Amino acid sequence: MKAETIDWSQLPFSYMPLPSRYEAVFQNGCWQEKGLITETEIRLSESAAVLQYAQSCFEGLKAYSTRDGQVVTFRPELNAQRMIDTCRRLVMPEISIEMFVSAVDAVIRDNAAFIPPYGSGATLYLRPFMIGTNPVLGVRSADEFLFRVFATPVGPYFKGGVKPITLTVSDFDRAAPRGTGHVKGGLNYAMSLYAGHQAKAQGYAENMYLDAATQSKVEETGGANVFFITSDGKFVTPDSHTILPSITRRSLVTVAADYLGMQVEEREVYLSELPSFLECGLCGTAAIITPVGAIHDHGKMIEFPSGMEKPGPVCLKLYDTLLGIQTGQVAAPEGWLHRVL
Ligand SMILES: *Cc1c(COP(=O)(O)O)cnc(C)c1O
After folding, report:
1. 79 CA distance to ligand 1 centroid (A)?
2. What's the pLDDT tens digit per position in 309-338?
C-alpha cells in the first residue's frame, strides 16, 4: 500500500500493514530490544502460552496531526501504566513507561508517510501488545514474551454525521467482582464475542453489561466506558473496580469539569435511574464518543430525550472539546500532549 494512494476520508477501522513495527523479546529475565523490523508475521511454537492459555494483553492509542503541523500522542504514559497494571495481573513482565513510549514514538516516526493529515478525521492507530511465547503444557505462565507495537491508519468514526446507537442490557457478565475486568487482556474480549454476537443478531449495536454481583448497576459495554448527562447538567459515570479504566473517560471527566464547568459524579449508577438521564455516550480511543439514543432492557426500551437522529448537545460539546485538545485547536492541560514529530 502506497501512502499517496490512500483516501483518508474512506479509511475503515481495520488493519493495514505498514512498513515497520517495533519488537522486543523477554528471555532469561530481561528485555532485549529488536527495534524496528519489517516482518509482519510472528513465528510461534504450537504450544506457546498465548495459544494455549490466552496469555496476552494489549493497548490502543492514536497519533494525531495537529493544526500547527505537529504529530502528537495523547497521554501515552497512561497507556504504558495501564499495560504495566495488566502485565502484573496476567503474570507478564512489565515494560517500563519510557520503553513503551519510545517504542510507540519510533513506530510513528518510521511510518510518518501514513499519518493522516490534519482535518481528514483519520488518525494513526497504535497497537502495542504482549504475548507469552514459549511452549507450556501444564497451566502456568510463560517465561518468554514478545512485545510489539504496530501502527495502522484508521478512518474517522464520525463519518458523515454520526447516528446514535441502541444498546441492549446483557444477560451475560463481562467481569467478575474479583476478576480481570479492570485490565486490558485479550481474554476479556474472547469471552465477550458470543454475547456481542447475540446482541447484534437481535439488532443492537452493543451490549450494556451490569455488575455481576447484583445485576443492578451499569458498568460498561464490551469495549467502551459509558457516561450519562443528568437533567441538571451533571456528567455521571460509573465508579467500579470491574470496569476498564478508560483514558478517554478519565480525560472527559476533566474536560467536563474544567472546560465545560459541569459537575462530575463518579459513582455507582443504577439501571433503574437510566430513564431520568438526558443523554448517554460511550467513550474510548477509537471513536472518542459514540452517542447512545436508547437502551433495550428485557422488553422495555429506555429512550434518551436526545433521540436517535443526532448526538445530544452535551455529547457534542464534550466530543468537540476533547478532539480539539487532541488536534491542537483547544489548549491542552499540562502534559496531555506528547510531541512525536
Ligand atoms: C480499551 C477499553 C476501553 C477504552 O479505553 P480508552 O483508554 O479510552 O481507549 C473501554 N473499555 C474496555 C473494556 C476496553 O478494553
Report:
1. 10
2. 999 999 999 999 999 999 999 999 999 999
Please list, residue by residue across 177-199, b when 16 or more beta carbons sit within 10 angstroms of its beta carbon and e when fewer do. eebbbbbbbbbbbebbeebbeeb
Whether 80 is in the pocket of ligand 1, judged by its Cβ within 6 Å, is: no
- 8 A C-beta contact, residue 165 and residue 279: no
Cα angle value 103/106/110 (rounded, 5°) = 145
The DSSP annotation for 272-288 comes to GGGGG-SEEEEEETTTE
CB distance 186 to ligand 1 below 6 Å: no
Count of CA atoms in the C-beta half-sphere (13 A) of 243 = 30
Instruction: State pTM to two decimals.
Output: 0.97
84-100 average pLDDT score: 98
Q: Is the pLDDT of residue 1 over 90?
A: no
3-class state of residue 48 by DSSP: strand
**From the CB of 224, is ligand 1 less than 6 Å away?**
yes
